Structure formats: C-alpha cells, structure tokens
Amino acid sequence: MNQFFDLAKIALDRRKQFDVAPTEAEWEDMLRVAYKQSVQGVMAEVFYDRIPAEQFPEHKLFLVWMGIQKKITMDNRRQDEYCARVQKFFDEGGFRSCILKGQGTALYYPVPTDRQAGDIDVWVEGDRREILKYVSSHYEVTQVVYHHAEIKMFEDVDVEVHFWPSWMYNPLTNYKLHRFFISQIDAQMGSEKCDRDFRRTTVDFDAVFSMVHIYRHLLEEGVGLRQLMDYYYILHHLPAEKRPYVMRWMKRLRMVRFAGAVMYVLKVVYDIEDEYLLCPINEVAGVVLLDEIMLSGNFGKFDGRLRHNPKDSRMKKFAKKSHRQARFLTEYPTEVIAFPFFRLWQYLWRKIKGYK
C-alpha cells in the first residue's frame, strides 16, 4: 500500500517520482486501488510531466488509464451542465439554493475535471412541504428522509434535494449543526454563480460541512480517499484566519478527535504540509480511520462486512448497521449510542408523514 501512497503524493505534486519503478503487476494493483477509492482521474496526473518515462506502465495499461481519465473529464462537463439546470429549476420556482460538495468541491482542484463526479446534491431553502410540492409537480420523488429527498430529474445522474445539508444522530449535536447551517444560509445562497453557472458553497462552510460529511459516511457505510482528497484541497484554500472558526465548530459538534484522525490520513497518504493542518494529528484515531478507508473503499462499496441482500428484512438491515456502528463505540461514543434512537425516530417520522 505504501506504493499507492507514493503514487498519491506524486499526483498531488508532493514528490517527484518513485524511488523504484513499479512493475506491471504493481501498476495494475495501483489502478485497482485508485478505482476502489474513486481517484483514478487525479492519479493519472502522474503521467503529465511528473514521473520519467521509464517509470510508466506498459502501453496497454497506460492507454486504459488515459481512457478512464478522459471519461471522467466528459462526466464532469455533463455534471456541470446538470448542476446549472438544477439551480435554474429552483430559481424559477422562487427557491434559493446552492450546490453541495461534488462539482463545487471540484473547483478547488488544480484540474477540476480530474475529480470523479458522483450524484448531485442541492441545498434548497424553504419549507419541506413546499419544496416537495414544487418538485413533485415536475419530477418523480423516489424517497424522502429527514434531511433530503431523492428525485428523478436525469436518467443518468441521481439528484438529492437537501432540506438540511447533513445531520447528527445525537439530538444535541444535531441541534448545534442546524444552528450552523441556519447561520450560513445567506452566505451560501446569496452569492453569485460561479463560472459553471451554479452557486457553490464557500470554503469556510466546506471546511465544516465536508468534515461532517466524511464523518457521516464513516459511521453510515464507509468513506473513501476521494472525500479525503476533497478535504486536502479545501484546507489548501482555507485562509489561516478561518481555521479557529472551523475548530470552534468541531468542538461544538464533538468532532475534534475525528478532525485529528482526518489530519493523520491527509499526512500519511497525501503528505499535506504542516501549515495547512487544521488541528494536531490524532494518530490512534487516524490509524483506525485509514484502515477503514482502505478496506471499504468509496462509500463502502467494497466492504464485504456491510453487503446487503435485497431480500433482507428491515430488522436485518438495521442489525447490520448497528453491528457496523458498534466498531466505533470507543472512538465516537455519543453518535454510536444515539444511532438506534435516531433510526427509530426517523422510521416513525416517515410513517407519520406518509413518505416512501
């Protein structure tokens, strides 16, 4: 795995080349890891005046990697267009909105089209019922949960309409997180559109929200290096005077330990410069986080421990999730302990509201 971490450092221009040229088998393994972590496009940057030609893989594998990067570029251009259309749709309905993570975060990258695109997340201001009434009059709403609704706006890309950008299981920290989001509404939704014709979130907002997003995915299903790379670039754009503000929110949300774990991963994998670290490294929590990242891959898609059978009952799925949560009890107890109560509350809430 150290060789893949070397590849990551070269791709991010933190070192110049491999100490020893990788074998073809090692190159194939690095491509598999890049695929698992959804960072193939960025890793392909090593072939652009980074490593000497004698360290390249064989021509066939090189062409495969270039083809993957080309497709990621095309996907990003399509996604930028879709984000603009989503924003226009809500503008026409009289709702303020902004794009969360995804295509907005990609703009922090030196080559934005290298970041592998995912689904589209849009934060919409307004009453949940009014937003759903407007959306459902134009598109199919496939699912509604506490913080977002999934809609079928495009055939090839999922769209999530967020009433809240994220959440916490613990009701006290969830309340504090909501206070943060409320305080940020005007700053995020009142800004000018970027050159891709959609509104994106500000870097100080992203420094809090993206940390919460990584935390949520770790506890829910798994998280990959793409999200950690996002945070690497967020920190490179975050002004030094904003770091105390971000850390105040980490303390309020009981995420200081997790923030230290993220700093550890950014140091080990990407060799982030000390001047950009948000807080001191927590090696103990960081080792646990990195192990989970490398095992589960992007959004936990490669984690056999969490593989669901479509025929599983609701209770069996809940049991599997609870088993996953239990692994983090000593690391993040307040969230893990609150998990079953939150899930029960959300189940009852959806039943009462009549949501799918």
Care to give the gist of this entry?
This protein is of the alpha+beta class. It has helices spanning 2-11, 24-37, 40-43, 59-92, 102-106, 128-136, 171-189, 203-220, 225-237, 243-252, 256-270, 283-296, 314-326, 333-353; strands at residues 97-100, 120-124, 140-144, 148-152, 159-162.
Write structural notes for this entry.
By secondary structure, the protein is an alpha+beta fold. It is globular. A hairpin with a 6-residue loop joins strand 4 and strand 5. A five-stranded mixed β-sheet has the order 1-2-5-4-3. Helices cover 56% and strands 6% of the residues. The longest helix is centred in the first third of the chain and has 34 residues. It contains 14 helices and five strands. The model has no long low-confidence stretch (mean pLDDT 91).
